[in-house]
Amino acid sequence: MLFNSIEFAVFAVVVFFLYWFLGRRSGRSQNIILLGTSIFFYGYADLRFLSLILFNVIINYLLGLSIRRCKSESKQQLVLITGLLINIGILCYFKYFNFFYDSIIDLLAVFGSDFAYSSLKILLPLGISFYTFQSIGYLLDIYNEEIEPCDDPLAFATYLTYFPKIVAGPIERAQRFLPQISHARQFDYQLAADGCRQFLWGLFAKVVLANGLENALNPIFDNVADQRASTLLVGAFLYLFYMYCDFSGYTNMALGISKLFGIRLSINFATPLFSTSISDFWRRWHISLSTWAMDYLYTPLTFIFRSYGKAGTMLAISITFFVIGIWHGAAWAYVAFGVLQAIYFIPLVTAGSVNQVNNYDDVLIPSPVHALKMLFMLCIIALAFLLLKTESVSGTLDYISAIVSADLFSRPEKFPGMLMMIFALFMLTEWLQRNREHALDIARIALPYRHIIYIVLLIMVFGLGEFDNSAFVYKQF
Amino acid sequence: MKSFLAKSILYISAILIVHIIAGYSAGGAIDAYYLRFTSPPQSSLIIGSSRAAQGLQPSAITAVTGKDIFNFAFTAHDSPYGPIYLNAISNKIKPDSTDGIFILSVSPWLVSSSSSAPEDVSTFRERDGILADMTEFSMKPNFEYLIKNYHHGWLKLFRKTRASTQLHEDGWLEITVNMDENKVAARKARKLEAYRNNSLPSNTPSQARMDSLRDSIRLLQQHGRVFLVRLPAGQEVLDIEASLMPDFDAQMRSVADDFRLSYLDFSGCADDYTYIDGVHLYKDSGSKLSGQIALLIDNDMAADRASYHLCSR
After folding, report:
1. Residues A70, A176: one domain?
2. What residues contact A208, with CB distance under 8 A and at least 6 apart?
3. Could you give the dihedral angle defined by the CA atoms of residues A432, A437, A438 and A442, in that order, rounded to the nearest 10 degrees?
4. Nearest-CA residue of chain A relative to B9?
5. B105: part of which helix (H) or strand (E)?
6. Is A342 within the bounds of a domain?
7. Based on the structure, what is the number of domains in chain B?
8. Chain A residues touching B154 at Cβ < 8 A
9. Cα–Cα separations (whole angstroms), residue A317 to A144, A241, A323, A325, A340
10. Last residue of a domain, one of A186, A211, A242
11. Residues A87 and A202 in one domain
12. CB B114 within 8 A of CB B202
C-alpha cells in the first residue's frame, strides 16, 4: 500500500476517524488502534513476514527489560550481545546470506574449487533494515543508560510497527517516539494542517518529480551503449535528482501522515543537494541513518581508535561507511558505495575539518565559492549514486567511461526540459525554505495565498502526476 | 477538528469533482485500451493480440461485409487465450446477438504459456494484465478502468488526439511512427532480440490455452460465424514461431475441422505487407489485409464447413 495510492488514501481516512473518534478516550486505546492498523498495513503489503516483525517486537521488548534487570555489568553485556546477535543474525540471514554465500563460493573458485551450488531463494522482508536498526539502537540506548526500557508492551509494539515509518523509515529513536505515545494525544489543528502540507509536498516530489524523472531516466539506463556521452551525463544527474525526490518525498509523506495522529517523526532530510562538503551531505541526507551510524558506530570507533590520530578517524569513517554502504543492499556495488564515501572524506580528515559546519543559512544567494562547492558535491554524489542504480561496480565504471568521450559536449538526445523546469522551481522553494522543517511550512503566509499555493500544487499533483504504483526506491533497501 | 474536517472535505470534494469531469471527457487518446471498455456490447468482434489490435481495421471490414465489427484485441501479455480473456469476451458480446462475425487472430504466442507450469491457469501471465480484475467492459465513462489501469494525471484525460497512438471508437489502434528504413530496421532488430532472448526461451505451448481457444470458439459460435486468422509477420518472426510450435498450422487446421470453421493463414505472404517493426502491420498494410480478410469472410459467410485459405505468393 503505497502512500500515493487510492488504497492508502482510504486506509488513512479510516485510521484517522478510528483514532480520533473511537480512540480519543485514552492513549492506550489510541495505541491499540495504531498497532492494529499498523499490523494490517504491514500484513497487507506482505503477510508472510508479519510473524517475523512480531517476533522482533517480543524479543526486543523482553531483552530491553532484561538488560535493566540484570544486576551486574557482565550480565547486561551478555544480554546486549545476545540481542545484537539475534537482530543482526536475522538481518544477515534475510538480507545478506546469499551475498556472503556467493562471495565465499566465488573466492573458493579463485583457488580452483569447482563446488557446485545454487543460491537459496530468500525473500527480503519489508522494512527489515529499518526496524532492525531501530531495535539495535533501542537495546544500545538501554545498555548505555540513555533510556529506561519500555515496560508497556503495547507502546513498544506500536513504536516498532508504526505504519508511517515501517516501510522506509525514518529510523526512529525510542527516546523521541515513546514519550509521544505515553499519554492520550489531543487533536492539534496546527500540527494536522502542517502534516497535510508536508504530505502534499512529499506527494508532489514523488508523483510529479520522482515518477516523472524515473520515466525520463529509464530509457537512458536501459540502453547505455547507444547513448551519447552528454545524455549519459544528464542521466547520472537525473538519477540523483530522482533519488532525492523519491526518498525525500516518501519521508515528507510519512512525517505528514504521522502529524495527523499527533506524532512527530524525525526529520530525515535537510536540503542535501545544497551540501558544500561530504560531511555536510551526510548531515543532511537520510539523517536518521547517518545519526544512527554516528552514535552507535562512528563515535565508539573513534574512541577505540583514538590513539591512532587521523588514521584512527579514517578507519572509523571507513568502517562506518562500509556499514552504511552494505545497509543499502547485499552486493559489492553497495560496499563500493560506502568505500567511495569514505574516500571522499580523506581530504576532510587530512585537513582536520570533518566536523566543520558550513553555515550559509542566512544568505539569500550563495557566494561563488559556495556555489562551486555545491556543484562539485552534486557531481561526486551523482557519481557515487550510479553504484546504487547499476548495482554493479563494472556497470558503473562502464557508464563513467562512456561519459568520458568526445561527444560529451554534444546536445543530449534525451532531456526532460519541462520536468527540469518544475524541478528547478522545487529546488528554489527548498532553498528559500531551507531553515524550516519542510519546504511547504507556510503557516505564516496569509490564508488566501496559502490556498492558492495548495491549489496550484494539487493541480500539478493530480493533473500532471504519474501514479503508476512504482514503489519507493528506499523500500528495497 | 470541525474546521479541519470541513476544509479537508472541501478539498477532497473538489479533487473528486475534477476527476469525475475529466473522466467524462476521456477518449481514445488517453491510452491504447480505454475505449474498448466504454463501447456498448458488440455483435461482432476482432479477438487477439497487438498484431490484431493494430493490423485489423473494423472500418475496412464493415465496408465489405456490411456488418459493424469491434476490435477487442489487446496484447500478447494481456489477451492470450485463457479464462481471463474468455471472461472479457463473454462480457463484451451482445447477449442476444446470433449473426455476428468473430475474427480470432491466432499465433503460437497466444496458445503458449510463459509460466513454469504451462497447464496451470492460475500462473498465466495475464493475471496481472488489464483484463484480469475488470468487471465492467461496457460503461462510459468507465471509472473502474480509470481507477485500476490509468495511472497518469487527469490533465491527460482531456487530450483528444495523440501523435503516435490513437485508439479509435471501433477499437482499432492506429500507430503512427517514422517509417524511415533505418528506424524500421532498428525497431525490428530490437523486436527480434526480444523474441529470441525473452519470449522464445520462456514460452511453452499450453494445452490449457488451446482448450481456452476452443472454449472461446464454442462461445462465439452461439453468436455468429467464427474465423481463425493467422496474420502475416516478417519471415524471421515466423521462423521463431516455427521453433516454438512447429505443428501450429496443423493444430489450427484441426481446430477448424472440429468446429467447421474457416482458417485463413496469411503467414505465407509476409512480403506483401509492410511492418513497423517486423511484427506489427503498418496501417496501410493493415487496411489492405483487413479488406482481403473481409472479402474472404463475405464469400464464406454461408458455408457450414471447415475451410482453409492458405495465402501464398
Report:
1. yes
2. A422, A460, A461, A464, A465, A466
3. -70
4. A13
5. strand B100-105
6. no
7. 1
8. 462-463
9. 22, 26, 10, 12, 11
10. A186
11. no
12. yes
Q: B1, B3, B25, B145: which to substitute to probe chain A, counting the most A Cβ within 10 Å? A: B1
Looking up residue B284, the CATH number of its domain turns out to be: 3.40.50.1110
- ipTM for the predicted complex: 0.76
CB contact under 8 Å between A462 and B18, yes or no, is yes
In terms of Cα–Cα distance, which of B255, B269, B270, B271 is closest to B308? B255
Residue of A nearest to B153 (CA): A463
Q: HSE on the CB side for A85, CA within 13 Å?
A: 6
Residue among B3, B8, B19, B158 with most chain A CBs within 10 A, to mutate: B8
Same domain, A225 and A150: no
Could you tell me the residue range of the domain that residue B193 belongs to? Answer: 41-131+162-310
Residue B263 burial by CB count (10 A; 0-12/13-18/19+): exposed, middle or buried?
buried
Q: Alpha-carbon torsion B243, B246, B252, B253, what sign?
A: positive
Same domain (yes/no): A201, A155: no
Q: How far is Cα A39 from Cα A52, in angstroms, rounded to an integer?
A: 12
CB pairs under 8 A between A and B: 36
Domain that residue A206 falls in: 190-276+358-476
Pairing of strands B262-265, B307-310: parallel
| Cα atoms found within 13 Å of the Cα of residue A82, Cβ hemisphere only | 13
Cis status of the peptide bond prior to B141, with omega within 30 of 0: yes
Residue B85 C-alpha, separation from nearest chain A C-alpha, in angstroms: 23
Contact A163, A189 (CB under 8 A): no
Question: Based on the structure, what is the number of domains in chain A?
Answer: 2
**Which residue reads 510519512 in cell numbers?**
A254
3-class secondary-structure state, position A302:
helix
H-helix or E-strand spanning residue A151 = none
- Unique residue bearing C-alpha cell 590513539: A307
C-alpha distance from A96 to closest chain B C-alpha (Å): 27
Nearest chain B residue to A186 by CA distance is B1
* Ramachandran class of A241: left when φ > 0, alpha when ψ lies in -120 to 50, beta otherwise: alpha
The end-to-end CA distance of chain B, in Å, is 78
* ω into A347 cis (within 30 of 0): no
Q: Answer yes or no: are the C-beta atoms of B118 and B244 closer than 8 Å.
A: no
- In A, minimum Cα distance to B7 occurs at A193
Amino acid letter, A24: R
Check whether residue A41 and residue A77 sit in a common domain. Answer: yes
Contact between chains at A466 and B147 (C-beta distance less than 8 A): no
A371 shares a domain with A222: yes
Contact list in A for residue B11 (CB cut-off 8 A) is 454, 458
Give the torsion sign (CA, B287, B288, B293, B299). positive
Chain centre distance of CA A158: 20
Inter-residue contact A218 to A396 (CB < 8 Å): no
Residues of chain B positioned with their CB less than 8 A from the CB of A190: none
Report d(CA B99, CA B227) in Å as an integer: 13
- List the pLDDT tens digit at each of the 477 positions of chain A: 788 888 899 999 999 999 998 877 788 999 999 999 999 999 888 788 888 899 999 999 999 999 988 888 888 899 999 999 999 999 888 887 777 777 777 777 777 776 666 666 666 788 888 899 999 999 999 999 889 999 999 999 999 999 999 887 799 999 999 999 998 999 999 999 999 999 999 999 999 999 999 988 888 888 777 788 888 999 999 999 999 999 999 999 999 999 999 999 999 999 999 998 898 899 999 999 999 999 999 989 988 888 888 888 888 989 998 988 888 877 888 989 999 999 998 888 888 777 777 667 677 888 888 889 899 999 999 999 999 888 888 889 988 888 888 787 888 877 788 889 999 999 999 999 888 899 999 988 898 999 999 999 999 999 888 887 666 666 665
Question: Which residues from chain B sit within 8 angstroms of residue A467, using beta carbons?
Answer: 151-153
